[in-house]
Amino acid sequence: xxxxxxxxxxxxxxxxxxxxxxxxxxxxxxxxxxxxxxxxxxxxxxxxxxxxxxxxxxxxxxxxxxxxxxxxxxxxxxxxxxxxxxxxxxxxxxxxxxxxxxxxxxxxxxxxxxxxxxxxxxxxxxxxxxxxxxxxxxxxxxxxxxxxxxxxxxxxxxxxxxxxxxxxxxxxxxxxxxxxxxxxxxxxxxxxxxxxxxxxxxxxxxxxxxxxxxxxxxxxxxxxxxxxxxxxxxxxxxxxxxxxxxxxxxxxxxxxxxxxxxxxxxxxxxxxxxxxxxxxxxxxxxxxxxxxxxxxxxxxxxxxxxxxxxxxxxxxxxxxxxxxxxxxxxxxxxxxxxxxxxxxxxxxxxxxxxxxxxxxxxxxxxxxxxxxxxxxxxxxxxxxxxxxxxxxxxxxxxxxxxxxxxxxxxxxxxxxxxxxxxxxxxxxxxxxxxxxxxxxxxxxxxxxxxxxxxxxx
Length: 457
What we know:
This protein is of the alpha/beta class. 29% of the residues lie in helices and 18% in strands. The chain is built from 14 helices and 16 strands. It has helices at residues 15-18, 38-44, 116-122, 133-142, 156-163, 171-180, 199-209, 240-261, 270-276, 298-308, 331-339, 370-379, 407-413, 425-433, and strands spanning 5-10, 26-30, 33-34, 49-55, 61-67, 76-78, 147-150, 185-191, 215-222, 266-268, 320-327, 346-353, 386-390, 418-422, 441-443, 446-448. Strands 1, 2, 3, 4, 5 and 6 form a six-stranded antiparallel β-sheet that branches. The chain has a four-stranded parallel β-sheet with strand order 7-8-9-10. Strand 15 and strand 16 (446-448) form a beta hairpin. 34% of the residues are buried.
């Protein structure tokens, strides 16, 4: 079977529509260049004169020749950014979350991607243990920057042990090669008590600092453990005292870096502050939130969004009871914000759920499951009019939870209550202020609101 990218959707009025391409068509090559991923496609389409080899669903192939403006986009979406198999992780890391997923779930949850292309395109963190000279040459040639690198520790022996591969020992050499190629990168450490914390963390921080200016940031997140850790390396999570110690240790480095470069450079995930009961850093201390997708600064960003969102409360004529779903760690923060609202006849109840599915040590909102949400809503049902679900608990672009329950399952379980999805603090605050008039349409993570104060994202 020929390699290439399979089209999943065509944008209206686009070049792809003009060329009469349709979903299911496969683009095999452009100007005789074989396409292995969407990166190849983007570079190939930079030419103005194009010969595109297409394979239709019936197996027939044809060449479409056309001219285009140099900056004109094709206007097509693809089934995958990688045209072929995603490069999977060959490590067996002590802390791998995939190894802690419940049995008999959908196949995609067991995929351990470790693909530098997804790192460049989507900010996925990779270990670099499956990258060779050809990969580094391509990264250099196409200047695929920035990348996102899972470092964990710069102690070669310890990293090899934690990743359970000798190739894990090469991290500093590999980062040096990225430096030589003028490629920037963000780094992360999954911090495990008794392994890569303490003096080992100091060593890692010092080593990554030495890789500036190509090393742009270092994010530190605590190891996450579920109840499905059968035959896994024995690990423990941080308690409040341990989290406080990490905060103090990192704060020393942050103060030093802010004096040197005007930025913290090192950032801790929200869980450390919430667990220790410490105040979250101010927004400016996150320096633009460079590792927001890694869960670093999410809570502060949420608070700032909430504060900056102006509303026109539609004071309700009769009592409106709404339940807001979130994970245990976010509960107190969201409740404090909601309690500050002064809207007549609004009773907004924040349900900070224990994660029964993955275990109580998992407290983040994004890992809530549909069955846990339904169970808790049934236990807390009391004259409820509506339910607000966090979009981060749903698969991106779809209405499916990690356990394959769907948003429709929630609606069927509570047919007399309106269910809406909030993607962020802006949407949540507006929903609470004007519940009846805001229409939330969720499609491929794009939301359109229709209300007195229209907001489109």
